[in-house]
Amino acid sequence: MIGVEKGAARWTLTIDRPGKANSLTSAMLAELADAAEAAAAAQVPVLVLTGAGTVFSAGADLDEARAGLARDGVWERLSGAIAAFPGLSIAALNGTLAGGAFGMALACDLRIGVPGAKFFYPAIRLGFLPQPSDAGRLIALVGPARAKLILMAGQKLSAEEALSFGLVDRIVAPEDLAEAVDALAEAAEAAKPEVRAAIKAMCGG
Question: What's phi and psi for 192, nearest 5 deg?
Fold first, then answer.
């Protein structure tokens, strides 16, 4: 349920569970973390995360969440692996982003979305806490008040609101998503590893 496409300059990880809105199981999260760590070890220039179908991810599989997945350390392992990736990481949000799936997107360097996508983190409505690092990364992008709007008020953002808040960096038509990823990845893929790493460090990691 996780597709891993390995190229010399780019690895693409695809959440592929469209019949369940790409909701994430513990095994899927571990696969994603394994792949992100392997991409870092291989010094791949660019790492892309995306979803199959019209939803990026609805977050945790609710049955597994109630059984303990909501508090499992695998979420932090995954977001930490993406945040530590030394190249350029891009979340190609092909549709709605919800719940715990926020963590992997927030840990990416860039996020691009599509019109019509919704962005929400309903942990408070379900009686769960956000993952420990998610609030800090969200605040860094959108500020404390807007983070509370999402996490405490449980509000859904439209793609346009997400763009204006700084949660996503660009909105592109679904049919243009792959081309937009190519355009964002081109410079990093062509750069010398030491230049790429130094620029990322200058930008705060």
Answer: -70, 145
Q: pLDDT per residue over 99-138, tens digit each?
A: 999 999 999 999 999 999 999 999 999 899 999 999 999 9
pLDDT over 90 (residue 205): no
Cα gap 49→13, rounded to integer Å: 5
Chain position carrying tokens 């799936």: 101
Sign of CA dihedral 26, 6, 76, 62: negative
Q: How far apart are CA 121 and CA 201, in angstroms?
A: 29
Containing structural domain, residue 159: 2-202
Kindly report, residue by residue over 10-22, the tens digit of the pLDDT: 999 999 999 999 9
Tally of domains in the chain: 1
Alpha-carbon span 69 to 62, nearest angstrom: 9
Contact by Cβ (8 Å): 105, 113: no
Helix (H/G/I), strand (E/B), else coil: 17: coil
Instruction: Output the pLDDT for position 154.
Output: 96
Sheet holding 10-15, edge to edge: 2-6, 10-15, 46-51, 88-92, 110-113, 170-171
CATH number of domain containing 62: 3.90.226.10
157-158 and 110-113: which strand pairing?
unpaired
